[in-house]
Amino acid sequence: MGKKLTFDFSGWATRNDVRCSDGRTIRKGAFKDNDGQTVPLVWNHNHAAADNVLGHALLENREEGVYAYCSFNETEQGKTAKELVQHGDICSLSIYANQLKQNGGDVIHGAIREVSLVLAGANPGAKIENIIAHGETDAEQAVIWNASDTFEYNVEKEIVEHSEKQNNEPAEAEPVQHAEEGKSEAKDDKTVEDVVNSMTEEQKTVLYALVGAAFEDGKNENNQEDTEEMKQNAFESKTTNETENVLTHAELVGAIELAKKTGSLKEAVNQVIADKEAELQHSITNIERLFPEVKAISNTPDTINDDTSWVNKVMAKVHHTPFSRVKMMAMDITGEQARARGYVKGNQKVEEVIAALKRETSPQTVYKLQKLDRDDIIDITDFDVVAYIKQEMRGKLEEEIARAILTGDGRSAASNDKINPLNIRPILGDDTTYVVKKLVEKDPNMDQYAFAKFFIKEVIRARKDYKGSGNPALFTTEDMLTDMLLIEDKNGRVIYDTIEKLKTALRVSDIVTPPYFAEYESLLGILVNLNDYNVGADKGGAVAMFDDFDLNFNKYEYLIETRISGAMVKPFGAVTFEIKPATVNNEESQD
């Protein structure tokens, strides 16, 4: 490359054989293919806009690394960057490279795509940061940083004596100030890194040994503990997490500058280490102790539970009796034999035949038990935990009873905790004398809204079979209610835009959606007036709460229980709707 070049500044874009913080090292000739190439000069690797292109850089591959001769363009951004460099505000270069090839931790080949001016002017050595290139599936990318500080080098002779020039060409040129005639003048003073970079390997070894020894002495004096010997270049960063004991490039330069004033490198390193450790602490020790205590938004914890509003609608509607052993008697006079007859003289009169119906239901105990350690009760001062537990127990007890009334508790028949369906008889699955069962055949070609429309018709038709008291309520799933409310006419308008309109169409007093109904795949709904369902409890069998204290285990025990029976007392007083199971064609089954 010729010696006469027109450029605004020059410097090292990257250096060879410097171990990076992630353990990788750029080897000699890794970017030799970029020798003589011109690449864009960019601000801080920002490729998002053309305004960030500040000029171009001519690359020269050298023994030590890649050297860049950079020129600014005449854009406003280029002029601003030129002023920053000439003023010494910006002193660092980095390269953006991809298509990297590695041999273990060594980078042996790559392609530089641009050179950037960056603010990170005190990076310790070279650092490679991998980036996945958009549109290049097989290429690895990296941003390689190289710091260049503008401090003058004039350290006392105890560090090392160095000649003014080691090579014919300077290791790194300073930003060039252009004269009016177009000629450039170099600054007489060199930077610290200029001088260090121009040293021989032997001289560098001496420098690092001296700095390392001073660093170790200072560290031992401050920390009063033995640490491992510094064995790496002072401009590199450690690959371990012990970064608090590493002097960065800027800190090393600061120590050298301070040594010029104090006359001792050892004292300068001690001061830098002390300042660095002080920066890692708050101005107040254990400052978190001064932070305010966390406060609860409310005095009682929020309870995570399904919607239980349906429970009150069940428990408030059922019929209650002050006795638990219930006998239901009924006479069926709906048959043909119960009709009055006409008499023809001479014929024998036929007596009326009435079917007598009878069943008995006995009670069962339903309970809920909780235990709390006395120490916990005393320590919980934010709210009354005992009152909270008792409220939760009462709510869960009533929810379980309401579930047993409608569908049963859902537990296996072998479970010891099962509520016996002969004591609290569920409406779903009850005897056909008391509950009318409707199996709704679902056409697989129907969408959900067409099926909802069909279900409304089935509910309306079932009213002729309903013999219960007054106007019943419909218990159904939330999904079915949603589908019914979203039914549209041929013009795309919603037919039932309010629940009240839907209730009128169904001829029901209320529509209730217990969340647990979703557990039953075939269940569509239950039509019932719960006044026809009797819940009986003897004196003393009503809901009661009991407290006890276990002296041996220091625990309070809380028990809530009731002993009740439950059953439909009106024949044909409810209608259940379930999806009809699919039947298998006999011919297909034979095949």
Q: How would you portray this structure in words?
A:
The protein is of the alpha+beta class and 591 residues long. The chain has three domains: 9-148, no CATH class; 208-279, no CATH class; 314-335 and 353-591, Major capsid protein gp5 fold (2-Layer Sandwich), CATH 3.30.2400.10. Helices cover 24% and strands 25% of the residues. The protein is built from twelve helices and 23 strands. Strand 10 and strand 11 form a beta hairpin. It is elongated, with a radius of gyration of 45 Å. Mean pLDDT is 76; it is low at 121-139, 147-187, 224-245, 278-284 and 586-591.
Could you outline the blueprint of secondary structure elements for this entry?
Elements: E1 9-15, E2 25-26, E3 38-43, E4 53-61, E5 65-72, H1 76-86, E6 92-103, E7 106-118, E8 127-132, E9 140-146, E10 177-178, E11 184-185, H2 192-197, H3 201-223, H4 249-262, H5 265-279, H6 309-317, E12 319-321, E13 326-332, E14 355-361, E15 364-373, H7 374-379, H8 385-406, E16 435-440, H9 448-461, E17 473-476, H10 478-485, H11 499-506, E18 511-512, E19 523-528, E20 533-536, E21 544-550, E22 555-568, E23 574-579, H12 586-590
Parallel strand pairs: 2-7, 3-7, 12-20, 16-23, 17-18
Antiparallel strand pairs: 1-5, 3-4, 4-5, 6-7, 6-9, 8-9, 10-11, 13-14, 15-22, 17-19, 19-23, 20-22, 21-22
